[in-house]
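Need the bound structure for zinc ion, inputs here:
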Amino acid sequence: MFYNEEFETLPREALQAMQIKRLQQVLQRVYHTVGHYKKSLDAAGVKPDDIKSLTDLRKLPFMTRSDLQNNYPFGLFAVPMSSVVRLHASAGTSGRSTVFGYTKRDVDTWSELMARSLVAAGLTKNDIVHNAFGYGLFTTGLGMHFGAEKIGASVIPMSGGNSKRQIMILQDFGPTAICCTPSYALHLAEQGGVLGVDMKALKLRVGIFGAEPCSQQVCDEIEKIYGITALNFYGLSEVMGPGIGMECLEGRNGMHIFEDHFLVETIDPQTGEVLPEGAEGELVFTTLTKEAFPLVRYRSGDISRLITDPCRCGRSHIKIERIVKRSDDMLIIRGVNVFPAQVEAVLTDIEGLEPHYQIIVDKSGALDSLELQVEVSEKTFSESGSVKELQNIERRIIKDMKDYLGVSARVKLVEPNTLQHTPGQAAKVIDKRRI
Ligand SMILES: [Zn+2]
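Answer from helper R.:
Posting the output first, comments after.
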């Protein structure tokens, strides 16, 4: 099933002709409207007119997360704010977060790509969609919502948390599809077990999972517990949100990238060299139609490979393998992207702490848990005298982690010089989870 059969099955040659035309338009636009691109293209000695084929793409400089942060909040917008109808943002303190803008047309495109994704999962207007992705500044909740409405499905804007109520609604409203992180699906099943609910007896038929890695093993487990088909989507807020790629019901092997809207390359994360199709590398994206926040050669940090074999669903767009690795130190905690540097920024704003800390990530039941061990400074330790003061620091860390990064953390303050220090490295991350 297709939402937009013409574009989703476009022969490769026509698709590539469309891509190069759109790429040239994007380059002209960003070069003349966004200071960052003019500067970076000039520095690389490339002009938009030099890009005549898709292979010329590799002449263009990469964009990285720090380019995005350095232009916080609106420095990379290619349209005036009067044309922006929506703002989303990643987690992070001021200057370490990234803000994404959308024009009316961007929201329409995004909704269509989400509609394509949901139809690829076999959904129609007759489905009821239980959307347990968080609504708000993060892109996944609203992205799913608009796509579900676009295909005419009945969407339940459940958002995250409040598991008992989620289970009540799953029983009473009878949704046929659920969208959430894979670990939240497992958590709901655990809670259902406690309440004596048979998850297989629910009307759910399909689950659409993403925002964190979902291994084959986890997908299999969810399918078994719920008696549903579990499909993966690919999203990246910087590039658009969810709706960049989707696993199709017929193929069940990798996620199709909607190539009429995004160019995808794989590169060697060390050298930046473009890799041949099929080789494992870091995914790099270029947006072809975005108006407010276009991106050229953005390094995603996600490691995957391109699958170019024709898919039995009939879509002509290439696929990427599910993501289970990153090229950087980003952690995904309950679907929220967190960098150790962001944690450090939160901690350095709090007086009385040393910049030495340890991040311990584990599972508490099905869900991720985050523990922070932080050294207090010698001064605080010797002068504080009262346990109360230390408790205040602890509470402040918990609150700031939640407020700025959107994650709940357990905090353990420790005496100075008790954590192992690696020279030149403030943080040590211990990830005990198995993906
Ligand atoms: Zn397919």
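Comments: The mean pLDDT is 94. The chain has two domains: 70-328, 333-431.
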